[in-house]
Design goal:
There is one protein chain. About 50% of the residues are buried. Strand 8 (about 220-225), helix 9 and strand 9 (about 245-250) form a beta-alpha-beta unit. Helix content is about 40%, strand content about 20%. The chain has about 375 residues and is α/β, with parallel strands linked by helices. Helix 2 (about 45-65) packs parallel to helix 11 and helix 6 (about 145-160) packs across helix 7 (about 175-190). It has helices spanning about 10-15, 45-65, 80-90, 105-115, 130, 145-160, 175-190, 210-215, 230-240, 285-295, 305-320, 330-340; strands at about 30-35, 70-75, 95-100, 120-125, 140, 165-170, 195-200, 220-225, 245-250, 270-275, 345-350, 350-355, 365, 370-375, 375-380. It has 2 domains: about 10-145 and about 285-365, Response regulator (Rossmann fold); about 145-275, Rossmann fold, CATH 3.40.50.2300. The protein contains 12 helices and 15 strands.
């Protein structure tokens, strides 16, 4: 998918965004930072983000002789302190725009630094409200946590009105607890009950015997898992050994479970999850992206790759409207990009059509529900 370049005259752009004169590129590249967990338990997310961003940059560089993007990537291991260190390293290396970070807790820490430094930030997948709260320079391409909680509750109520619902969530993780809180209020607001609720912490995500016994004893037949793929895989594996076979419903953090090394993916058959993208869509743009991604990286892309791909194209499209030069500093570019994103800018990509952003940094896009069938994500 190739995003259209919007031509804007220099004088109009300067009036709109306040950048100095100059072309989109004066023979150099816009330096775009990417931060995510390239190692550790969330590495599937980070690698996908890095690859998706690089693929978009490669396409732009090949198809627009007047513009170049340089991707600068740093590993944060899904750790807030390491993420800030990665951010500072990229700043030292001349980063002008940040696509990241990948996960919520690290992004919340980095967003505070980017706000002080005035670095425009578009995260592909850090969905917590704290990421954008009070940070006028930070925008999300992903669904926010509250929106995910609402969407799942509404989908369940419409499609599984008689489900006996339970929840297992991570109460030490803002992403998980935020989605759970909104799901709970929405679900109960519809007159529904949650039959069992169990929590766990980051340092206790291997043994779920107690939580699963609680679900089983309460008669739960649909377990909502607003969690990442690693603990979700442990839950499914242990439930199978207990001969407990509920339907599982996950959110965007569940994506990647089919690529998890050592996990019996047959246990994920029938899992439902909220996602903006599936590689098995028959959409022409999606299939072009999947083919290019598989050729470049030897792997089928998950939604995090598509999110990052869209982020880079959204940066590319919006940057054309600023009238900025790559010789401008990050603060100048930041103020110009904010004006574009909070104006009439819309973007259509792999993860949504006619996406718009509000001043709070949240994106308006329609969620999709997929089911895992025969080892594939199939849109419902």
């Amino acid at each position: 998918m190739k995003a259209a370049v919007v031509a804007v005259s220099c004088m109009m752009a300067m009036a709109l965004a306040g950048c100095g004169g100059g072309s989109a590129s004066d023979g150099e590249a816009l330096k775009v930072g990417v931060i995510g967990p390239f190692t550790g338990p969330a590495a599937i997310y980070g690698e996908a983000v890095k690859n998706g961003a690089q693929l978009a940059a490669d396409e732009i560089n090949a198809n627009d002789p007047a513009f170049k993007i340089e991707i600068m990537a740093q590993d944060d291991e899904h750790d807030a302190e390491k993420s800030v260190n990665a951010y500072n390293k990229l700043r030292d290396e001349g980063m002008q725009v940040l696509v990241g970070t990948t996960t919520t807790a690290p992004c919340t820490a980095v967003a505070a630094e980017a706000y002080k430094d005035r670095v425009f930030t578009l995260t592909p997948s850090a969905s917590g409200p704290a990421v954008t709260e009070g940070n006028d320079n930070v925008f999300q391409l992903c669904f926010s946590d509250p929106n995910q909680g609402v969407a799942v509750a509404e989908y369940m109520a419409a499609n599984f009105p008689d489900a006996k619902v339970g929840v297992i969530y991570n109460n030490a993780d803002n992403y998980s607890s935020g989605i759970y809180a909104k799901f709970k209020s929405t679900w109960e607001g519809k007159g529904k009950k949650i039959l069992a609720t169990e929590a766990f912490a980051d340092d206790a995500n291997a043994d779920f015997t107690a939580q699963l016994n609680s679900m089983k004893n309460a008669g739960v037949d649909m377990v909502f898992l607003p969690i990442y793929y690693t603990p979700a895989s442990n839950i499914m594996t242990q439930a199978d050994k207990m001969d407990y076979k509920p339907t599982y419903f996950g959110v965007d953090g569940m994506d990647g479970i089919l690529a998890l090394e050592g996990f019996d993916t047959s246990l994920a058959e029938g899992v439902l999850l909220l996602t903006p993208f599936t590689a098995y869509s028959e959409d022409e743009d999606t299939q072009k992206f999947v083919k290019a991604y598989e050729e470049a990286f030897g792997d089928t892309p998950i939604q995090f790759a598509a999110d990052a791909y869209d982020c880079v194209y959204a940066v590319y499209d919006s940057y054309q409207k600023t009238g900025c030069s790559v010789e401008d500093d990050s603060a100048t570019i930041c103020e110009a990009m904010i004006k574009v994103f909070t104006g009439d800018f819309t973007f259509s990509g792999l993860t949504g059509q006619n996406m718009k952003w509000n001043e709070a940094g949240e994106v308006d896009k329609t969620p999709k529900v997929c089911v895992i069938q025969d080892g594939k994500y199939i849109e419902k």
